[in-house]
Design a protein that fits this description.
Elements (H helix, E strand, L loop, with lengths): L15 E8 L4 H9 L6 E10 L1 H12 L7 E2 L3 H13 L15 H38 L6 H11 L4 H23 L8 H39 L2 H7 L4 H40 L3 H11 L2 H9 L1 H17 L5 H32 L3
Length: 370
């Protein structure tokens, strides 16, 4: 059995590959090797092929069609040409390869959710452990008041409290205006404009005043605490404190947390008063309720318990914000990326916990009828 070769055939045009002898299932490896050695042939000569079966016709058809455009086949006998045409027509049409989309399994999203929940749980668990450490140091400081750094406490009261008064007062004033406008718009439909005073008083004194103040302080002070302590952690100053026998919790954390606990009720009170002023001004402009009438109805219909309920949340919110901000600062590694990540996380976690605790307070006061 002759093997496919170009040597036994007359000289073919340049670029033409010529097969000789049988092209059948028995000689298929030789034919395939012969064609592999000539990948750039532009035509295929079958004039010297003595036998051709379906396997050989399939190989020729696939090789001549694999170049994108059909390579001409010349010199085939009538029988070989008919068989080759039949096999070529039976080949499946070429299909464009589609890029496979990234495969997502149903469990991937569930695993992602589980990892996120586990991560937040670990953060909250770590913060609770840090809270216990702060409370222990606070108890030790109460037993030994001389250990409290008054200078640092006053400094942080100014930074976190007094410096935040303008933005808190402006926020409260604008919230009062919005509440009065929206309340008046709705109550006008029922001819009950006068009750806008009760709406403003209860909403601001009981919920919105202290909640929005805590959110502003969380965004302002929690990030500042994390950045300050995280920078000291990056410069290894906290490690130096420990080497010198100093407690970073007493020196860095306790003054900041106590400053917030002392100043947040004051900020909440300022936000409440500013909200009432804004609401009274809007009620005067939009509904014609004079400041005297607003004050009279406010004192007559609003109980002081609403103010006390709102302000009673302030120390808890302050403790949450201070502990979360300082704890995230302690978790900073030795690079700026970690500092930025922890600063953002402190704000998110503090605001989230403040809202959750406020909801728990609302449920608690509703159950006890306060």
């Amino acid at each position: 059995m002759a093997s496919p070769s170009a040597a036994d055939t007359p000289p073919a045009p340049r670029g033409t590959a010529a097969l000789t002898g049988p092209v059948t299932l028995a000689t298929l490896p030789e034919v395939r090797a012969f064609l592999d050695e000539r990948p750039g042939f532009s035509a295929l000569d079958l004039s010297a092929v003595t036998a051709l079966d379906t396997a050989g016709a399939w190989l020729i058809a696939t090789r001549t069609a694999a170049k994108g455009t059909q390579v001409p086949v010349t010199g085939a006998s009538a029988a070989h040409g008919l068989l080759l045409q039949t096999v070529t027509d039976a080949l499946p049409a070429p299909q464009k390869r589609r890029r496979r989309p990234v495969h997502h399994r149903a469990g991937d999203e569930l695993a992602w959710i589980g990892a996120a929940v586990s991560g937040y749980g670990a953060v909250i668990g770590g913060s609770l452990g840090f809270l216990g450490l702060v409370i222990a140091r606070l108890g030790n400081t109460i037993l030994h008041p001389s250990r409290l750094r008054l200078t640092a406490l006053v400094h942080h009261m100014q930074q976190a409290g007094l410096n935040a008064l303008p933005i808190v007062a402006l926020m409260g004033f604008l919230i009062g205006i919005v509440l009065a406008f929206q309340g008046a718009t709705q109550l006008k439909q029922f001819g009950a404009e006068v009750f806008v005073v009760n709406l403003i008083a209860v909403s601001i004194l009981r919920e919105l005043g202290i909640l929005l103040t805590a959110i502003i302080v969380a965004g302002r002070s929690a990030s500042a605490f994390t950045a300050a302590i995280g920078s000291m952690k990056m410069r290894e100053e906290i490690d130096a404190m420990r080497v010198l026998g100093l407690d970073p919790i007493e020196l860095l954390v306790l003054p900041r947390v106590l400053a917030l606990v002392l100043m947040l009720p004051l900020l909440g009170f300022v936000a409440n008063m500013a909200g009432l002023v804004g609401g009274g001004l809007m009620a005067w402009v939009d509904l014609g309720i004079s400041p005297g009438m607003f004050r009279t109805q406010l004192l007559m219909d609003t109980d002081v318990s609403h103010l006390l309920v709102g302000l009673s949340k302030a120390p808890v919110f302050a403790l949450i914000i201070g502990v979360v901000g300082c704890h995230q600062g302690m978790q900073v590694k030795g690079d700026t990326e970690s500092l930025g990540s922890r600063t953002s996380s402190s704000v998110v976690i503090a605001i989230f916990l403040v809202i959750v605790v406020d909801a728990l307070f609302s449920i608690f006061f509703a159950i006890w009828g306060v």
